[in-house]
Structure formats: C-alpha cells, structure tokens
C-alpha cells in the first residue's frame, strides 16, 4: 500500500503593517554621538547651534538604542539611501572643517576593528 504524501501548502507572503505611534515625533538632527556596549549600539541625536560667545551648544533630542545587528542593517540602509540621494541630486560635499573630524572617527573605528580581529 502506498501512502500519498500531502502536498505542502503554499507559503503565504508575510505582510508588514507600518503605522505611526501616537507619540511619533519628527526632529531635525545636525549632531550625532555614538557609542556601544557588547549588547547595544547607542545614538544620541541632537541639534547644535552657536552661542553668543562663539561656542557650540548641543540640545539632545533623542537617544536611539539598537541591537548590533539592527544597527548594521540601519547603517546599510543609510548607505544605500545616501548613494541614491547622490545619484539623483549630486555628490554631498562635506565642508572642509569637518573632514579632519571624519578622518579621526574613521581612523578610530579602523583601530578598534583591528583590535577585534587581532584575536581571531
């Protein structure tokens, strides 16, 4: 006697429903501070503005905490979005005074990456 195997049911495509939370806010950000722990990646987002004395004042607006994998996905999404922006509207030019700060951040990140791979 042969047993008929039941055909697998077709998989249903999962739908994602996106909705705004009742306390949803849209903010302007021109200042970012990032840090991490073994379990989280934290971004403090805020707005900087000059003071009368010529200093800079930063108002923290929000802290966003990501799991490491979600942070990596967010970085990928931001990179793709920036590439698409530049494809449509042209290159984003970083002001010359900010370039040394960016280089310092990249170098620090590379050094940290080297430390992590030394033990592998």
Task: Give an overview in words.
- With 120 residues, the protein is of the alpha+beta class.
- The chain has a domain at 31-113.
- The protein contains 2 helices and 3 strands.
- It has a 3-stranded antiparallel beta sheet with strand order 1-2-3.
- The longest helix has 22 residues, at 68-89.
- The mean pLDDT is 86.
* Series of secondary-structure elements, N-terminal to C-terminal: EEEHH
Helix content: 25-40%
Name the structural class. Answer: alpha+beta
Strand proportion, as a percent range, falls in: 15-25%
Main pleated-sheet profile: 3 strands, antiparallel
Given as residue ranges, the uncertain stretches (5+ residues, pLDDT < 50) are: none
Summarize the structure.
This protein is an alpha+beta fold and 120 residues long.
Keywords, please?
2 helices, alpha+beta, 120 residues, elongated, three-stranded antiparallel sheet
Please render the helix and strand layout as text.
Blueprint (H helix, E strand, L loop, with lengths): L30 E6 L4 E10 L5 E11 L1 H22 L9 H20 L2
Antiparallel strand pairs: 1-2, 2-3
